[in-house]
# Entry
Amino acid sequence: MPGRSRSVSPSLSTPALRPLALAISLALGAGLAHAADALPDAPAGNDDEAVMQTITVTGQNDDAAYTARKSASASKFDLSLRDTPQSVSVVTRAQMDDFRLDNASKVLAQTTGVTVEAVETDRSYYTARGYDITNFQYDGVGIPFVFGNVMGDLDTAVFERVDVVRGANGLISSTGNPSATINFVRKRPVAGLTASAAVTLGSWDTRRFDADVSTPLSADGKVAARFVVVHQEGNSYLDRYSPQKDVVYGVVEAKLTPDTTLTVGNTYQKNQERGGMWGALPLSYTDGTPTNYPISTSTSANWSRWNIKTNNTFAELAHQFNQDWSLKSTLSYTRATSDSTLLYVYGTPDRATGDGLFSYPSAYNSNNGQVLADISANGKFMLGGRKHDITLGLGWSKSTLSDTSHYGRGIGTPLPNGTAFDGSYPEPVFDASTDGSSYTDKRKNAFVAARFNLADNTKLLAGFNTVKADSSGTAYGVSQAKSQSDTTPYAGLVYDINRHVSAYGSYTGIFNPQSSIDARGQTLAAATGKSLEAGLKSEWFDGKLNLSGAVFKTRQDNAAEVAGTTADFKTFYKGVNSESKGVEFDVAGELARGWQANAGYSQLRITGDDGQDARTFIPRKQFHLASTYRVAGLPALKVGASLSWQDAIYNKVSDALTLRQGSYAQLGLLASYDISRNVSLSLNLNNVTDNKHLTSLYWTQALYAPGRNGSATLSWKY
# Structure
């Protein structure tokens, strides 16, 4: 069968027929909704295997596009989304700018199959395919979270794109959950002088300023730089909460020779929050009925503060040996510190009196460092009369954490008559006791993969990744010592059905070292398992529109799940065996001239060994849509809307208590007008229907999401 052509059929290239092409492609994948059970059972893992899902941020050539033509997020090979044997979603710079997605949580909330678990004002978890996302990467380099969740408000101004490679990514992500890897690819210098700036005024007196400049530093343009600056401050829908952040990013790119490029950069972000919360709101009364506070309710004290600073420096050297072979090496150093004085409120209130809540003040500081080195080579080789691709590489990292909790006097003080929520609790002296952590995590891995050109219409991607993880030290009196290693295989096959549609399948092992402790204070063994995925992909209009549908099934054993809290408020975990299976559909790109869209639907089921539903705080069904249209008769005007929906969730705390959040949808609207070639004004409105709902049931405490809010942005580009 001849290979597919990159040319486009004239009949389908007509903009008016693009929705028809979309419908045809979706029809090809309609049967996927019933196919998850048809996949063979994922074999139970052993203690040396692992899977994960991947999310990536990269550059974008088309300033208005809502999709990407190529991505190296899944395999180090720069492939089209259709040629990648895994599910890939993209949030581009254009979508981030249109919908004001200025932090990682907002971006991931508009990504197929991803759930944002905002458990506090300044800490979030993310899940996909039923499991926690534990891996952030930058420019394709990184390791899973060593120290837990995400602290702070990671700003997206310094990034160009976010790719979400759902499912197994065992090749370039050596360990992690079968969920997602989030790979943030930074902005780089572009040709010539370009500049942009924006001023945003929003609800709750929020003010934001962005500036982005790219400029050559040498007359011949071989040395260039790019700088990004952000300042944001304001209040919040929450009582007493006033977040502020500053971001400074600079990168210099030098063409040392025609074949060698050196890139050096640094990102600095400082978050300063007054009135930040430690923990959240109680969700039930002593009689088991749900609480229902105003959405502005906060347990923070007037003196509460939480400051987080992150500094990342990186250097990258890339060399092209010849037409077939290239080498890239990266060295990165990150230092993250936090300093806070916070009030935790615990207990269960009485419905009639409100009594039953108590204080737990603490001052906390941490110092987290990470050194990471990565080197990889890409090349081609001949075999059987055909040319094939190969990639191989080595990685090493060392992460350290030192943190101390200084507990305040007055722990256990009753908070009657609503004093838990009015900020009046007095600031204590923080000398009642201290505890903390001091430990080190080291990881090293090696991988090799080949993309075999079996036929013009058939490609096989196969390889393996071997990893060793070692930890030493203690965390709050508990040993973190572990030494775990394994080699995990990966295989993916892509078959071109015709010029526009391909079928694919992939398999990987799961190996995820863990530091979580159980009720006895013992470190859990590595989570292990297997993952399978199969689907259809379609590419139209020279890559301007991408569609995909997938079924997946994952078996994971001994994954850490919160099991309770000790008397001194230390969380302990248990190893849980589970199986996740489901379907996903994703559409991104240009549906017609001037009409961009990014939409997705996911449906899954997670069960434990007993066959009962597990991790029920994760929605089983989710839908999202973000779309803009540049009005044909008035091209200066662009209008758009976003819609997200999830079904009901619950968290069974005990036989007598189940926390619930019903299904809900959120609607957003936008309008943008180009005042001139260089100046535009945009208006964004979020949660238009003013829907009230909880942000998460990940914990037994939660926040309410913000009510109706909006912003106006004046932008300038040169």
Observations:
- Helices lie at 10-13, 18-28, 93-98, 104-109.
- DSSP finds four helices and 38 strands in the chain.
- Confidence is low (pLDDT under 50) at residues 1-61.
- The first helix runs from residue 10 to 13.
